[in-house]
Amino acid sequence: MSVGVGFIGVGVISDTYLENLNSFPDVEVLIVGDLDQDRAKSQAEKHGVPAWGSAQDVLDHPDVKVVVNLTIPAVHAEISSAAIAAGKHVWTEKPLGLDRESTSALLEQAAEAGLRVGCAPDTVLGAGVQTAKREIAKGTIGRPLFAQTSMQWQGPEVFHPNPAFLFAQGAGPLLDIGPYYFTTLVSLFGTVEKVVATGLKATEERTIQVGPNAGETFPVEVPSTISVLTVFEGGQQGNSLLSFDSPLARQGVVEIHGTKGSLVVPDPNMFEGRIAYVHPFESFGERPPEQEWIEVPQEGPVAGRGLGLLDMVRAIAEDRPHVASGELGYHVLDVMLSAEESAASGEFVTVESSISAPVPPVPVDFDPYASTL
Questions:
Q1: Which of 2, 20, 32, 223 is the most exposed place for a label (fewest CB within 10 A)?
Q2: pLDDT band at residue 36 using 50, 70 and 90 as cut-offs
Q3: What whole-number distance in Å separates Cα of residue 48 and Cα of residue 22?
Q4: Taking a C-beta distance cutoff of 8 angstroms, is the pair 77, 96 a contact?
Q5: What is the C-alpha separation between 134 and 121, in angstroms, rounded?
Q6: Structural domains of the chain ordered from first start
């Protein structure tokens, strides 16, 4: 038996979701809906989905049990709330919402209705982060002390024909890219207790470089570079750089440093990648020798976007917590909003939310392509 799924929003990212979910036997995409119903029809025909229409058509579909919310971030909470009101579980793209009030209300609404909310990114369920998580649990690098992450490059206006929304309130590198990095860190370390951040704008306006609007300028509403220090309840610290201003392109950097070694974790925007660690020097002469990297084979599910939704569907059937939960998505949002507030005030900001239990691991034998329901 498969669980019926409906999509609201069929933009560019819907392709990878539809490709993956159509390959998982435990779920079945029944309908796609969009403001642009011609686009919904096109995606339905492209991916073999039997029905298409509006958002309301998706909500009204009697066999849809889970709504995939791929709308723009500004309406994430609104659309997810409508799905909950219609009696559907929700999987939403990141971020869960853009403010604490509407997103916390969404989670309360879901809890009262006995429905689940899942939130991207679900890359933390992939073989890359999960293998790294097991290495940390095994004590490979001893007690984790601090993390360093970096995502820096010159910005999306060099490839995106309409990049203004990525520099508007509710976006910027922090809320657009930050969820991948902070979800990974929370998955590894647990609740963030407080943050302090600094931010800057390279310019007050940017210029579109490609497409029909090339040469047009648009305002920069949020910091285009932000550095965030996170302090975790467990005592660990994280230092994260997110920038759309760097001539040097360097993305996907996640390093965990512990008392007995340092671990390289794959790009948190990917489901797999290189995992390796080094041990500290015992002693050396005038110059330190080159450190030996020890490669770690990946184990676990290799899939793509939609893996978190599949885990949620199976978790409902098995009456267990799912990994990429609404609670996790809300805490990550709270961390990022706290970082915004800290960058504006120059002071530490306490993160009021927490996760009630450690983010659960994914079993090594989790097989997305098995029929389990």
A1: 2
A2: very high
A3: 9
A4: yes
A5: 19
A6: 3-119 (3.40.50.720), 124-295 (3.30.360.10)
